[in-house]
Amino acid sequence: MVANQVRHVEPPLRLTRRGRVVVLGLLVVLASLASAVLFTTASRAEQSPAGPPPTIVVRSGDTLWDIAARSMPSRDGQAAVDELRRLNGLSGYGVAAGDVLILPRAV
Length: 107
Hints:
- This protein has helices at residues 17-46, 64-71, 77-88; strands at residues 55-57, 100-102.
- It is mainly alpha-helical.
- The chain has a two-stranded antiparallel sheet with strand order 1-2.
């Protein structure tokens, strides 16, 4: 290296005030888009599935307990009966053969 040559070093990258505003604006836009995507995905997850709810026709000799045990075997019996009553607007526990009951959707 020759003694007269001066080594030129590039200064570190510096952002002007306008540059910082532009970078901040881009970050805000990206954050907004990400939250919009997450919000729409979350709101779709809460929507109930399309189509009519499942139903069952009460057979002769059936009780709410029998229907709850057949249609919701993994649930507690009394909670399942209460759910059937709530879904069908039943004030009592009696059902008659031929009644059509709405069942809860599978989770």
